[in-house]
Write a structure and sequence with these properties.
Blueprint lengths: L3 E2 L2 H20 L6 E7 L3 H17 L2 E7 L5 H13 L5 E4 L9 H6 L12 H9 L7 H12 L8 E5 L6 H9 L8 E5 L6 H5 L4 E4 L17 E4 L3 E4 L7 E4 L4 H4 L5 E2 L6 H20 L4
Parallel strand pairs: 1-11, 2-3, 2-4, 5-6, 5-7, 7-8, 8-11
Antiparallel strand pairs: 9-10
Helix pairs in contact: 1-10, 2-10, 6-7, 6-10
């Protein structure tokens, strides 16, 4: 068996075409979705992410403005900026790029974003609504995974989904999304982690296996059931002297070995990654639609 490659780039491109149409509809009513991004410091990965978000926003018809603050900016100054953006009726979505410098309380800052403008989907109000099954902004990476499954013909309904990883960014919210009694969900969900005893005995039960542990190649072929769908969320740098930059990106799955057992698998890069930015753009357009009462 050779696995079908699930391309996040292709799924993302399809969704972005839909978002362009939604933005165009808003434009006929004089509405342009507006995203404000706050970047503190000069973390190279964060700068790269911001550029991809700005490019995606321009592509679909969103105005994206980035406020780049020095690394020594005080927590108070960031919160004062958030107060102004929360109060600005022209702003639909706010995103604070993490990680933040060590002297800043990240949770305090993120929780200060208005839930109505929390397009990253990590405010406690939105997470609480997610758990209850109420309408809310869904966290971007877990929502992107759900969209990939649905749009590529791998409906999780009635399937056993095993999620490797319990982070607040991926594992926990993905479990909450897929547990809902809704279209695109209704799965039986098991969450395993570093404290799980005999972890492979659980992963081998999965119809859909999601790897989000942040450890390169930790999911090996013997841990995967024949014919399973494998979603690799990991993005890890490993040394590679053959590359000009001295490293290459790999996932949490031993890709070459597992693709011989899985029925479908996401690559790294080009799998889940592109979906994360696209779902941020979708949340921003949804915020504009909600504000105008058309969501």
């Amino acid at each position: 068996m050779t696995a079908v490659i699930i391309s996040g780039l292709e799924v993302s491109a399809s969704i972005r075409n839909e978002l362009k149409a939604r933005a165009a509809t808003l434009a006929t009513r004089g509405i342009v979705p507006h995203l404000e991004v706050i970047l503190v410091g000069n973390d190279p990965a964060s700068i790269s992410y911001i550029k991809s978000k700005q490019k995606g926003a321009a592509e679909v018809g969103i105005v994206a403005n980035t406020t780049h603050l020095p690394a020594d900016t005080s927590e108070r100054n960031i919160i004062e900026l958030l107060d102004r953006l929360n109060a600005d009726a022209a702003v639909d979505g706010i995103l604070v790029q993490v990680p933040l410098p060590a002297h800043i309380d990240t949770e305090k800052v993120l929780y200060h974003i208005s839930p109505e403008k929390d397009v990253d989907g990590f405010h406690p109000v939105n997470l609480g609504k997610l758990l209850r099954g109420e309408p809310c902004f869904l966290p971007c990476t877990p929502h992107g995974i759900q969209q990939m499954l649905m749009r590529c013909g791998y409906d999780p309904a009635g399937k056993h989904v095993v999620i490797c990883g319990r982070s607040n960014l991926v594992g926990k919210p993905l479990a909450a999304i897929l547990l809902q009694k809704k279209k695109g969900a209704n799965a039986t969900v098991t969450v395993v982690h570093t404290g799980t005893v005999h972890l492979p005995s659980f992963t081998r039960q999965a119809d859909i296996l999601v790897a989000a542990m942040g450890s390169p190649g930790c999911i090996t072929a013997d841990m995967v059931r024949e014919g399973a769908v494998v979603i690799d969320v990991g993005v890890n740098r490993v040394p590679d002297p053959t590359k000009e930059r001295g490293y290459r990106l790999v996932g949490d799955v031993d890709f070459e070995a597992v693709r011989g057992k899985a029925s479908a698998i996401t690559p790294v890069p080009g799998g889940v990654g592109p979906m994360t930015v696209t779902m941020l753009l979708q949340n921003t357009i949804e915020a504009a639609e909600r504000k105008e009462g058309h969501a």
